[in-house]
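Support request, priority: normal
Reporter: lab tech (M.K.)
Component: structure prediction queue

Hi team, I submitted a job for Outer membrane protein OmpK from Chromobacterium aquaticum yesterday, and the status page still shows it as pending. I've pasted the exact input below so you can check whether something in the sequence is tripping the parser. The sequence length should be 260 residues. Please let me know if I need to resubmit or if it's stuck on your end.
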Amino acid sequence: MKTRNLLLALALVGGCTVAQAGDYSFGNVSFNQLNWSPSTLDRTQAGPFGAKRNFQYLEAEGGIGRSWGDVYGFFDLENWNRNDKDIPAGDRRYTTKVVARFNLAEVGGVPVKLYTHVYDTRGHNFFDQNRVLGLGTDLSFGKVWFKPFLGVHQELKYGVGANMNGYMAGYVAGFDFTAFGQPFSVTQWHETEFDRAKEYTTLASPTGTTQRRTGQNGAIGLWWTPIKSMTAGLQYRYAVNKLGVAGNENAVIYSLKYNF
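Reply from support: The job had stalled in the queue. We restarted it manually and it finished. Here are the results:
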């Protein structure tokens, strides 16, 4: 309970700080279409709780950086154009993520940051909230930037409750470049959950259910910003032993953003 309260408090502090001026800030709203691969759809339809369905989602996203650290967050409205509660994966879902990183010290010129994130998704008769508390840093090599983290993981899940759920390691990374006279960028986010608690290891498989203590989750994106206010994106979404399903899952996300 103490870990839960600390994570939520840090997220709230970060959210309040977003309103202040900073060294950088950004914000956008976007329309997104996520299409699972045919193999992913075929494998998950018979699962007890891992069925997938292509869907659209609307997103509001933003972040800010200051001398104390940085905050990033988004809110997604999934299946905004429908709400099929009787169809697996067809209900309207609400997803929020807040990441707050606070500068602690520098070791050999490398910043050490307190890292925390809260990820919450919920729909009809379902919710899942992940909380991570740990350490992270910032690394840059020219136009390439890399922000890794490692922390303890707590999860609150429908039908399971709140428990410590092992550890999570991950990163966000990217770089900007110019091609054909146009500005582009490549980004990636990735998370590895390991040493998961037995309450969270049950996954759907073609033969029923199975147990997996390690899972992968992430996406790689290519972004084109022809004008300052508009960005178009193409993402490859992937997961391994995650999202309720054993084995590989993958999807393509098409995005169009309006930048503030």
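The first helix runs from residue 2 to 17. The chain has one domain: 2-259. Let us know if anything else looks off. Ticket resolved.
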